[in-house]
């Protein structure tokens, strides 16, 4: 019957791959993903079907035991953005279940640290990894190998950029502060980036002040690495929004250092410096110090400045410095 066969065909969901019966379902879908000749549509469909199956705790067992973590590294490098997004969703479902969280020690203990770091670069991936922040911090505290610390701090930074509160609730500021003192410049750079992310919410600013982080951050301003400097200035920029942050920064005499760093002509660093100086100018003591440097800032605010963003930021700084009640 032609109409009957047409109806059956129409009922087939083209967004999902066919699923084998029973315990063969998960392994079969992984086989599809692992075949080099599998085209993008088949990869997408297999991932959608896997996500459907991950609502069953027994399927999560199968997925983890079947090598899902290792396969993530391949899928996260896929040229297709939809495949990468669906991979993030898959891990999110696994980590969101109690059984999936049971495996978080294994996830952090194997070579998939690089996979996690790559995954955390995507908003959906960072969201999936938020459930692993407690174990991530534990590993960071225990880990001695420099390369692994860099990966863990980078992953923490991406996750905290999305939502810093889980890490802040576990005293991450104190732990990351220790890493700011590490002998490795790479570790210090990633620690400063993580501290920047942690200092964005109000609770993070409060903890940065309470844990005496700013003296260590100011010390990083003397680093040769521009990224270390930029991350450190960003911590100052965010923390100085609070009254306590302003007072601590001014006590540490950061204004001359920020003015000097602004000359380095690296856009991110210059923008952070200008915004930090603008925030410090809101305090009477900061405004007094910056009034002495007004000609320099006015020069940066002139039309001659090639970068429009920098020019506008400098103009804002000048307005705040020269404001009178």
From TrEMBL:
<dbReference type="InterPro" id="IPR042856">
    <property type="entry name" value="RSP14"/>
</dbReference>
<dbReference type="InterPro" id="IPR016024">
    <property type="entry name" value="ARM-type_fold"/>
</dbReference>
<protein>
    <recommendedName>
        <fullName>Radial spoke head 14 homolog</fullName>
    </recommendedName>
</protein>
<dbReference type="InterPro" id="IPR000225">
    <property type="entry name" value="Armadillo"/>
</dbReference>
<dbReference type="InterPro" id="IPR011989">
    <property type="entry name" value="ARM-like"/>
</dbReference>
């Amino acid at each position: 019957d032609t109409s009957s066969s047409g109806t059956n065909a129409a009922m087939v969901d083209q967004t999902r791959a066919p699923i084998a019966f029973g315990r063969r379902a998960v392994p079969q879908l992984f086989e599809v993903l692992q075949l080099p000749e599998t085209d993008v549509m088949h990869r997408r469909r297999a991932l959608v079907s896997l996500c459907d199956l991950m609502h069953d705790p027994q399927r999560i067992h199968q997925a983890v035991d079947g090598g899902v973590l290792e396969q993530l590294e391949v899928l996260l490098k896929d040229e297709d953005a939809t495949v990468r997004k669906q991979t993030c969703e898959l891990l999110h479902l696994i980590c969101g279940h109690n059984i999936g969280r049971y495996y978080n020690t294994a996830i952090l203990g194997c070579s998939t640290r690089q996979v996690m770091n790559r995954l955390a670069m995507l908003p959906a991936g960072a969201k999936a990894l938020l459930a692993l922040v407690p174990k991530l911090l534990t590993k960071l505290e225990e880990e001695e190998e420099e390369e692994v610390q860099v990966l863990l701090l980078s992953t923490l930074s991406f996750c905290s950029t999305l939502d810093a509160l889980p890490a802040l609730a576990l005293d991450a500021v104190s732990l990351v502060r220790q890493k700011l003192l590490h002998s490795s410049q790479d570790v210090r750079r990633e620690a400063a980036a993580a501290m920047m992310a942690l200092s964005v919410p109000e609770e993070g600013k409060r903890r940065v002040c309470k844990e005496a982080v700013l003296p260590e951050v100011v010390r990083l301003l003397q680093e040769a690495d521009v990224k270390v400097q930029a991350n450190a200035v960003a911590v100052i920029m965010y923390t100085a929004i609070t009254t306590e942050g302003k007072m601590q920064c001014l006590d540490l005499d950061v204004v001359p250092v920020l003015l000097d760093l602004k000359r380095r002509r690296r856009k991110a660093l210059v923008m952070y410096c200008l915004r930090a100086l603008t925030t410090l100018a809101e305090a009477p003591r900061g405004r007094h110090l910056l009034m002495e440097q007004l000609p320099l800032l006015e020069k940066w605010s002139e039309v001659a400045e090639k970068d429009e963003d920098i020019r506008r930021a400098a103009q804002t700084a000048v307005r705040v410095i020269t404001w009178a009640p």
